[in-house]
Design goal:
244 residues, alpha/beta, Rossmann fold, N-terminal domain of TfIIb, seven-stranded mixed sheet, four-stranded antiparallel sheet
């Protein structure tokens, strides 16, 4: 795991803003309608937290990066929305209470080092969900990591920053490495270079099913690519809707 460091400064600029609407719509379709209290894991800079709060939910945002949370808190204050933001590692949710819903989007589960950590996250979520609560998360499909990502390259140029994002196949099955180089303009007009490496790994659908069952989840439904349809061989993003 990493803290995103300077990446927090340009994170919003390189994210596809339309994804937040899709995550919001998918969540609201699958949340029971009579509950309000939501924990958003890996909330980043708070855009999704704000969407959930504006939809009427009582939101707690949780993230490893304090830099991200500082931006998130400022965003919520500017919007006049009451959201609690907590810094921590989702391998240990002891600093938060219990919730009706827990979400973990933007393939954040794929940042866990191995399936043991993935299982530990599922167990933590189960412990902090109320009875009848719903846990929704998304991950990269094996098709995405094995066929789509290797050789992927993304370049972004803006007035005050530029970046290069290259993705390569990693050694472990269904894993990739994202190498990011970006240049951020300082107050004096000069550009400073920053480099980051992000490692992601996913697993077969059966592995996720087993880990969720071991954590205690008995009812799990799997969808793909923001739609209420079962995954296909070429689905890029898997969605899991788990009920406690």
């Amino acid at each position: 795991m990493n803290t995103y460091e300077k990446f927090a400064a340009v994170y919003d600029a390189i994210m596809d803003d339309s994804l937040y609407n899709q995550w919001t719509d998918f969540s609201l379709r699958h949340f029971p309608k009579d509950k309000k209290k939501l924990l958003e894991l890996a909330c980043g800079t708070g855009i999704q937290s704000l969407r959930f709060a504006q939809a009427g939910l009582k939101v707690t945002g949780f993230d490893l990066s304090q830099e991200m949370l500082n931006i998130a808190d400022e965003r919520a204050q500017t919007a006049g929305v009451d959201i609690s933001f907590v810094q921590g590692n989702m391998l240990d949710l002891s600093s938060v209470g219990t919730f009706d819903y827990v979400t973990c989007y933007s393939d954040s589960i794929c940042y866990m080092q191995d399936e043991v950590e993935v299982g530990d996250v599922f167990e933590q979520v189960y412990q902090h969900l109320k009875s009848g609560g719903t846990f929704i998360f998304d991950v990269h499909s094996t098709y995405q990591t094995d066929e789509v990502f290797p050789g992927y390259s993304y370049h972004e140029n803006a007035e005050d920053f530029a970046m290069v994002w290259d993705t390569y196949e990693d050694e472990a099955p269904h894993s990739v490495v994202h190498e990011l180089t970006f240049f951020i303009q300082d107050e004096d007009g000069r550009f400073t270079r920053y480099d980051e490496v992000h490692e992601e790994r996913t697993y077969e659908l059966l592995t996720y099913d087993i880990l969720l069952e071991q954590a205690g989840f008995k009812k799990v439904q799997v969808y793909a690519d923001f739609e209420d349809e079962a995954p296909t061989e070429t689905s890029k993003r898997w969605f899991f809707v788990c009920e406690k």
